[in-house]
Design a protein that fits this description.
CATH topology of one domain: Helix Hairpins
Helix content: 40-55%
CATH class of one domain: Mainly Alpha
Number of helices: 5
Number of strands: 14
CATH architecture of one domain: Orthogonal Bundle
Length: about 375
Amino acid sequence: MADTNTPPLDSTDPAPETAQKRQVRIILVLAACAALIAIVAFAIHHETWGKYQQSTDDAYVAADGVTIAPKVAGYVTKVFVIDNQDVKAGDPLVEVDPRDYKAQSAQFVAQVDVAKANAAGVTAQISEQQAAIAKAEADLAAARQAAAYANGEVARYTPLAATGADTRDHLAQLKNDAARADAQSAAASAALDAAHRRIATLQAQVGQASAQGEAARAQLDAANTNLASTLIRATVDGRVGDKSVQAGQFVQPASRLLTLVPVSQMYITANFKETQMGLMRVGQPVSVHVDALPGVEIAARVQSISPGTGAQFSILPPQNATGNFTKIVQRVPVRIAIFAGPETRSLLVPGMSVSVDVNTISARDANDRIAQEQKSHNAAAGQ
C-alpha cells in the first residue's frame, strides 16, 4: 500500500528562494546607500576641506650652514673640535700659528713709539725756537733804537754842516753810521721773520710725525686684527660638519676648513607645483611628516615663498624662446618654519626627506577677490 504523505518528486517550495532574494536586495540597497553616503561625505569633505590641502613629498630638511674659513694664512697649530661636535657661538675652533702676526704687531708698536718720539723732539725744538724769537725781537728793538739815534744825529748835524759849523766829513760819517744802523735794523727784522717761519716749519714737522704715528697706529690695528684672526671662533651655535682641517696643515685665506650647521634653526624647503600655489600664503599652517620618524607629525607654518621657480635660479636657466617648446609644470620653492621640541630637532638632519601638507583654507575666497579686482582693472584699462 502506497504512502500518501510522501510529496511528489517534482514539487518545489518557493519560500526559501524568495527570502534569499529579499536578503540580497536588502544587502544591495544598504551597500548602495553606504556608497552614496560615502560619495556624498567625500564630496562634502573635498569641497570644504580636501581641495584646500596642498601636499608634496618633494621636500627636504634644510639649514643655512656657515662655512668656517681663515682670514690669514699660516700653519694650523691647534684644532679644538671634532666631527659632529656641538659648539656655542664664540667657542674656539681652529688656531693658526700667531707668531708672525705677533712680530708684526710689535714692529708697528715700535713705529708708533718712534713717531711719538719724533713729535716730542720737534715740540721741544719749537720751545727752543720761542726763545730764539724772543732774542730776535730784542735784537730788532735795539737795532731800531740805534737806527733812530743815528738818523737823529744826521738830522741834527746837517744844518750845522750847511752853515760851516761842522765839517762835511763828520756829517758823512754820521750818514754812514745811520745807513749801517738801518741795515742792521732790517737784518734784525728779517731774522725775526725767519724765526717765526721756523716755528711754522717745526709745526709742520710735528704734523708729519703725528701723521706717521696715525699711519703706524692704523697698521698696528690691522696687525692686531690679523693676530686676533689667528684664533677662529664659532660665529653661531651649531654642529661641526664636513671638517677637513688638521693640525700642521697650511691654510690660505678664505679656504674652507669646516661647516657649522645651526641645528636649532633648521627649516624645510618644499617644492610645490605651480598649480598648487594659487591659494598658498605666508603664515598658513603646515603638517610635516619626516620619513625618518614614521607616525610623528610636526607642526609648521609657511614662512616665505620664493620669488621665482627653481628653474629660474638654476645655473643654466631654460631658454624657452629657442627651439621646440614642451610645457613642463614648474615648481616653486617654499620655505617652511618648523615648530619642534629639542629632542625632535636633535634627530633632524639637513637633507632628510619629508612630506608636507599645507592647509590653504584661509585663502579660499582669494580667487574671487582677485577676479573682482582684475575686472575693475580691466574696465579701467578699457576706458
